[in-house]
């Protein structure tokens, strides 16, 4: 399977993606815990059906020490006992922030309060930016039908 577009060869995409990659790096360096970042990136990608991002974030999380049990349970995190309350709050915010078209209210006050209970303002900002960033990345990859399976951890660092 070949992608519809080669973002790395296109001059316009190259200019724009330089800033996107820089934003991704800034998010990685944020005070939001790495495990939370990878779990959120994975969950957003699962919701959107972005195979290349699921591949990437599953492998990055595993390389960072995440267990296969937790990775396998991200899609059913509500029923799983392996996530902290803070991670559950981040996953809830990620889901509501990703499914804004499904609920006219967007992120509910209850989900926001739950996340605010576990994260300070800088971490909350990073979390909101990460959810938004992942939704954009998912859409870029889904529209171009980027193939999945070949990602190597650290490939874009």
UniProtKB/TrEMBL annotation:
Domain Carboxymuconolactone decarboxylase-like residues, every copy: 16-96
> Pfam families under this entry?
CMD (PF02627)
What top-level branch of life does the organism fall under?
Bacteria
Database matches in NCBIfam families: ahpD_dom
Classification via PANTHER family: 4-CARBOXYMUCONOLACTONE DECARBOXYLASE FAMILY PROTEIN (AFU_ORTHOLOGUE AFUA_6G11590) (PTHR34846), BLL7811 PROTEIN (PTHR34846:SF7)
Query: What's the name of the protein?
Result: Carboxymuconolactone decarboxylase family protein
Q: Which organism is it from?
A: Streptomyces dengpaensis
Task: Output the lineage of the source organism.
Answer: Bacteria, Bacillati, Actinomycetota, Actinomycetes, Kitasatosporales
């Amino acid at each position: 399977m070949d992608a519809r577009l080669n973002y790395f060869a296109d001059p316009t995409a190259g200019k724009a993606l330089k800033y996107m990659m820089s934003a991704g790096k800034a998010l990685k360096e944020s005070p939001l815990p790495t495990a939370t970042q990878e779990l959120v990136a994975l969950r957003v990608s699962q919701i959107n059906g972005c195979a290349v991002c699921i591949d990437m974030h599953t492998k990055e999380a595993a390389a960072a020490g995440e267990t296969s049990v937790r990775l396998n349970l991200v899609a059913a995190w509500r029923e799983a006992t392996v996530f902290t309350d803070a991670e559950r709050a981040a996953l809830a915010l990620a889901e509501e922030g990703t499914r804004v078209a499904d609920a006219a209210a967007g992120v509910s006050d209850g989900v926001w309060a739950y996340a605010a209970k576990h994260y300070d303002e800088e971490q909350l900002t990073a979390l909101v930016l990460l959810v938004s960033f992942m939704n954009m990345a998912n859409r870029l990859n889904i529209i171009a039908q980027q193939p999945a399976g070949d990602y190597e951890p650290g490939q874009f660092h």
